[in-house]
């Protein structure tokens, strides 16, 4: 019998790429991909009715309110409230609808600010969170605990996946609400087009970050949905990090910007280093295949095609 797959958040960065990757691997797959205007996950009755009506075998919860460091810091109430609503509605709804498998998408920001590097899954709740995104992180931790609790109490096959910083096609390139890598692509592209002599980047450039191309995450999500069943969270990442300064230089080179890069230390850096231990998923037989340079090149090509003018 053919499995019915449901991707919630199918228009976002992860959801849209997961949809494409699923069809690439399984061209005849039966995939439900409701849009925001047809399913409001903030609404409990709407969410439950949808799950009861369609009864998918596997649900990927990719829907979330997300943003970069400034958005997370400026709109804490919005981030914690909306994410708690979405998660609670979907996780409880999956249980009541008898959904066999739920894949919950978390974030590397759930880990303590001063977690030992590389960050192991066991570091969860072992210390204080990074203050600039603690509201979002606490919402995601609540989602993890819900999945674990339903497994412990009811035997529900719900798993929680923690990706590193993501980028790629369908990303958010907004300079205020987007994450660092897509925002830098836009900054350098516009600076090149406008012949600007200098580009300002927030922070000192010293923080180290790990970046995962979103098509690799999509592949990992499908892999884990088929090969992983455990209450323990599981990291998905590249397994190596790079400074924001070095990242900026790679992007500037790829875009073709030759001006000066100036870092503004008046803006916060966030956690100084964040790279995850990916031993658990590597031992299962999965590793990413896209290099950072290749991923940036593909993302910039996408940006030019969609926004270049």
Average of pLDDT: 95
Record the strand order, biggest sheet: 2-1-3-4-5-10
Helical content stands at 40-55%
The topology string of helices and strands comes to: EHEHEHHEHEEHEEEHEEHEEHH
* Total strands: 13
| Class from secondary-structure proportions | alpha/beta
CA(first)-CA(last) distance: 47 Å
Which residue ranges are poorly predicted, with pLDDT under 50 across at least 5 consecutive positions? none
Percent strand:
15-25%
Radius of gyration from the alpha-carbon trace, in angstroms? 19 Å
Please characterize this protein's 3D structure:
With 309 residues, the protein is of the alpha/beta class. Helices cover 44% and strands 16% of the residues. It has a 6-stranded parallel beta sheet, with helices on both faces. A 3-stranded mixed beta sheet has the order 11-8-13. A two-stranded parallel ribbon has the order 6-9. α1 (13-25) links the parallel β1 and β2. α2 packs parallel to α4 (76-97) and α6 (180-193) crosses α8. The radius of gyration is 19 Å and the shape is globular. The model has no long low-confidence stretch (mean pLDDT 95).
Care to give the gist of this entry?
With 309 residues, the chain is of the alpha/beta class.
SSE layout and pairings?
Blueprint: E1 4-8, H1 13-25, E2 30-32, H2 44-54, E3 58-61, H3 69-74, H4 76-97, E4 101-105, H5 134-154, E5 157-163, E6 165-167, H6 180-193, E7 198-202, E8 208-209, E9 211-213, H7 214-227, E10 234-236, E11 242-243, H8 244-255, E12 260-264, E13 273-274, H9 279-284, H10 292-307
Parallel strand pairs: 1-2, 1-3, 3-4, 4-5, 5-10, 6-9, 7-12, 8-13
Antiparallel strand pairs: 8-11
Helix pairs in contact: 1-7, 2-4, 4-5, 6-8, 6-10, 8-10
């Amino acid at each position: 019998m053919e499995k019915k797959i449901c991707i919630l958040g199918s228009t976002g960065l992860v959801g849209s790429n997961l949809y494409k990757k699923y069809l690439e691997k399984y061209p005849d797959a039966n995939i439900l991909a409701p849009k925001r205007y047809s399913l409001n996950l903030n609404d409990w009755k709407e969410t439950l009715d949808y799950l009861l009506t369609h009864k998918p075998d596997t649900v990927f919860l990719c829907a979330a309110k997300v943003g970069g460091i400034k958005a997370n810091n400026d709109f804490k109430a919005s981030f914690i409230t909306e994410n708690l609503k979405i998660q609670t509605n979907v996780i409880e709804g999956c249980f009541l609808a008898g959904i066999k498998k739920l894949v919950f998408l978390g974030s590397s920001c759930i880990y303590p600010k001063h977690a030992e590097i590389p960050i192991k899954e066991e570091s969860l709740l072992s210390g204080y969170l990074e203050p600039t995104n603690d509201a979002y992180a606490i919402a995601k931790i609540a989602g993890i605990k819900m999945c674990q609790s339903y497994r412990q109490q009811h035997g529900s096959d719900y798993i929680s996946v923690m990706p590193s910083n993501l980028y790629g096609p369908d990303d958010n390139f907004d300079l205020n609400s987007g994450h660092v890598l897509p925002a830098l692509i836009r900054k350098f592209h516009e600076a090149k087009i406008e012949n600007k002599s200098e580009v300002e980047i927030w922070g000192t450039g010293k923080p180290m970050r790990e970046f995962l191309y979103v098509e690799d995450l999509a592949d990992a999500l499908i892999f884990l949905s088929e090969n992983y069943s455990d209450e323990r969270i599981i990291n998905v990442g590249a397994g190596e990090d790079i400074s924001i300064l070095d990242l900026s230089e790679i992007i500037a080179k790829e875009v073709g910007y030759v001006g000066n890069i100036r870092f503004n230390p008046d803006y916060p850096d966030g956690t100084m280093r964040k790279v995850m231990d990916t031993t658990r998923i590597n031992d299962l037989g999965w590793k990413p295949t896209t290099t950072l340079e290749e991923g940036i090149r593909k993302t910039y090509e996408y940006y030019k095609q969609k926004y270049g003018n």
